Amino acid sequence: MGTWSIPATSFTTWPRMRPNRSNYRPQMRAWHDYHITGYTVDGKNREIRFDISWPYETATDIERAVVVFSGVEGYFFEHDLGGNIVYAFSEESIEEFLAEHQSQFEESAKWGWPLFWAGSVSQSLEGLRTREAKCFELSSSYGLSGWLLATDVEYLEPENQPSFKPTGRRPAA
Q1: What kind and span of H or E run contains 109?
Q2: Cβ–Cβ < 8 Å for 5, 154
Q3: Nearest-CA neighbor of 73 among 43, 109, 49?
Q4: 46: which of 53, 72, 117, 142 fits an S-S bond (Cβ 3.0–4.6 Å)?
Q5: What is the DSSP letter of 56?
């Protein structure tokens, strides 16, 4: 099938959307109950790749894929149990995310993390919007959870990848 890019126009309305237009959240393809078999962080190329698979007997349209986040500005993952099961990858409000984590970022900034933190929510938001970053949350049914800020997300299917091994780089077009 090939490389799939998920343009904003193909998103559906986020289920927790409130009437206020500022609360509109696009939703990615559902990866619910897929297993994360590995992930790669490529700092130099600002990319994070999740290898995922559907280990169940029931039919699905995609049995294996690599979910690729590019233009990564920052990330935080925790609770990696080796056998991680995705509840959802979802896009969240970047402004609400920054406000929620402000004290953590202010405290950690003295050690240089996160790199996108510009001293305040408004300054960080301005810089991230200029770079067209979005906030993605990884929630799990079991194991790995966290967040990442990136400019783009796509998924690749194995037919497009001769060895289907995470390399930290996208296959040549």
Answers
A1: none
A2: yes
A3: 43
A4: 72
A5: S
Sheet holding 145-150, edge to edge: 3-5, 152-156, 64-70, 47-53, 35-42, 84-92, 134-142, 145-150, 74-78
Domain-wise residue ranges, the chain = 26-160
For the chain, give the number of residues: 173
Cα-based distances in Å from 109 to 36, 93, 114, 115, 123: 30, 22, 6, 8, 14
Rounded to two decimals, the pTM is 0.77
Closest CA to 79 of 146, 131, 129: 146
Residue range 127-164, pLDDT digits in tens: 999 999 999 999 999 999 999 999 999 999 877 554 44
Q: Strand, helix or coil at 116?
A: coil
What is the C-alpha to C-alpha distance for residues 8 and 152, in angstroms, rounded to an integer? 10
Give CA 34 to chain center in angstroms.
Answer: 15
Residue 148: exposed, middle, or buried by beta-carbon count in 10 A (0-12, 13-18, 19+)?
buried
